[in-house]
Write a structure and sequence with these properties.
Elements: H1 9-17, H2 23-41, E1 44-47, H3 49-64, E2 76-80, H4 107-114, E3 118-123, H5 157-165, E4 170-175, H6 181-187, E5 190-193, E6 220-225, H7 228-238, E7 265-268, H8 279-294, E8 298-301, H9 309-324, H10 332-347, H11 351-354, H12 363-367, H13 371-392, E9 397-401, E10 417-419, E11 422-424, H14 426-431, H15 435-440, E12 444-451, E13 457-463, H16 469-483
Parallel strand pairs: 2-3, 2-4, 7-8, 7-9
Antiparallel strand pairs: 1-3, 4-6, 5-6, 5-12, 9-13, 10-11, 12-13
Helix pairs in contact: 2-3, 5-6, 7-16, 9-13
């Protein structure tokens, strides 16, 4: 029965349909695994065990009478605690929301439930989705299943840890600055950040209930799993227009071209000169490129023309500062927390790197945002998107690192990180390889490609063309077949 908890979601769905196993058996297997390991991992912050059991029983009875609820009939999932769930508390790890029971599900949750999925509970996270670690004021910190002294990343750290440790086959995450992709890299699992506005963000915090909807650009929602096939299954179910978010366009899913590895033109970067990655990451990237070349793919070192990291981070920061000012209440707790963050980003890490990730430079905008400044930033973003679209046109995908660092030991929020003897500012070490694709809107898939000598996972980012997720996922599957390296952490 333990093996069930590491089977992919699409396989579990097939096994239930074929009557090889019941939904009740699968739900009980996951609840047992959670009871065995969650007290050390803290990946699940709210468990909804009894309703999940009843729903599993209903799923089995429905199937026995010839009824199928959908592609995930009877399959348990977990949901990051930043997505609203009817009748299950949604806190975002934020004290004022500790008892919040949403009136309805987030759109992405509702669509998965309509496809037959059963919500086991909520996965732990960084407070209000605002950190590259997963700590908050309500629940114990999330620990990495590969080494409990290390962070699983953030803000979807509970999601990634749960997937890696077999506490869930599928989890939902959001990604405003890498919150799906960095935890996937840190925990050795798969993650998808789709095209900007491809999937509805209705029912997603950090815009706390009652506040205006501010995060209308760069905020995406996606999923984490243990296979590309599960990412595709989830994406196909949840993507599409939503009356609750009229700005989500009714763009149909694309049809993959069916290219095999020898047909692919792959752009490749093992690192960006301004921000070197850890030696282990660079070695894994080089080895991956060599294996793809040996498999017949055309892999060429590449960077987009005029790809200026300082300008990219500045534009991202100005956009984020303009909208975040209104997304949450300006209470004393939030102000104190923000001041600590800004102090560390302004004072910690190598001075030559600090200018790339110094959020304190956006303090004037945060304190006094202007409509003109916001529109100017949006105009500049339009130009960046167009330039990236044009640069990527000759390539099928672009592969590059996820972060400059692998998982690191727990530490105070936004503290500097040592990488091969050099001190990196927190935002640079974790975000500088991620933020450009929130800004450009391109979809990206993270796959595991190896491990460090000490056994920490290493992931790789595969970036595709906007609105071409199905093609990206098909190519990611081809690449994963050649170099993918998902491993199950020992002891789970």
């Amino acid at each position: 029965m333990t093996d069930l908890t590491f089977a992919p979601a699409h396989q579990l769905a097939r096994m239930i349909r074929d009557r090889q196993v019941s939904s009740t058996e699968i739900v009980e297997a996951y609840l047992t695994k959670i009871s065995q390991h969650n007290s050390l991992l803290n990946a699940i912050c709210t468990l909804d065990a009894e309703p999940a059991r009843k729903r599993a029983q209903a799923a089995d009875l429905a199937l026995a009478s010839g009824k199928n609820w959908g592609r995930l009939h009877g399959v348990p999932i977990t949901v990051k605690d930043i997505f609203e769930t009817a009748n299950i508390r949604t806190t975002a790890g934020y004290i004022p929301l500790k008892d919040y029971l949403p009136p309805q599900d987030a759109t992405i949750v509702a669509r998965l439930k309509a496809a037959g999925a059963i919500v086991l509970g909520k996965s732990n996270l960084a407070e209000l989705g605002g950190d590259y670690q997963s700590t908050n004021s309500l629940f114990p910190r999330v620990n990495n299943p590969w080494h409990l002294d290390y962070t699983p990343g953030g803000s979807s750290g509970g999601s990634a840890a749960a997937i890696a440790a077999g506490l869930s086959p599928l989890d939902l995450g959001n990604d405003f600055g890498g919150s799906i992709r960095q935890p996937a890299h840190f925990c050795g699992v798969y993650g998808l950040k789709p095209t900007d506005r491809r999937i509805s963000t209705a029912g997603v915090i950090p815009e706390t209930p009652g506040m205006p909807i501010c995060l209308r650009q760069m905020m995406t929602v996606g999923c984490l799993a243990r296979s590309i096939a599960d990412l595709q299954l989830c994406f196909e179910i949840v993507a599409g227009a939503d009356p609750r978010r009229p700005d989500v366009p009714p763009v149909p899913l694309d049809t993959p071209t069916g290219k095999s590895l020898p047909d692919l033109k792959i752009a490749w970067s093992d690192e960006w000169a301004e921000v070197p990655v850890a030696t282990a990451i660079k070695s894994a990237m080089v080895a991956s490129a060599d294996r793809l070349t040996a498999a017949g793919a055309k892999v060429n070192r590449w960077l987009p023309p005029n790809f200026n990291l300082s300008e990219i981070f500045d534009l991202y920061g100005r956009l984020a500062a303009n909208v975040n000012r209104y997304a949450q209440p300006a209470d004393l707790y939030n102000l104190r927390h923000s001041a600590e963050l800004l102090w560390r980003t302004a004072t910690q890490g190598d001075k030559k790197l600090r200018h790339l990730g110094n959020y304190s430079s956006f303090l004037p905008t945060m304190l006094n945002p202007s409509l003109k400044g916001y529109f100017q930033a949006l105009t500049e973003r339009d130009s960046f998107i167009a330039a990236m679209d044009a640069a990527l046109e000759p390539w099928d995908v672009w592969i590059c690192p996820v972060a400059a660092t692998t998982a690191f030991t727990h530490r105070p929020a936004w503290s500097a990180i040592d990488i091969d003897g050099r001190s990196y500012p927190h935002a640079v070490a974790n975000g500088i390889y991620l933020l450009p694709f929130n800004l450009s809107g391109q979809p990206a898939v993270v796959i595991p490609i190896g491990q460090t000598q000490t056994g920490l996972p290493i992931g790789m980012q595969i970036v595709g063309k906007r609105w071409r997720e199905m093609e990206l996922l098909a190519i990611a599957q081809e690449i994963d077949n050649a170099i993918g390296n998902f491993r199950q952490p020992s002891g789970y």
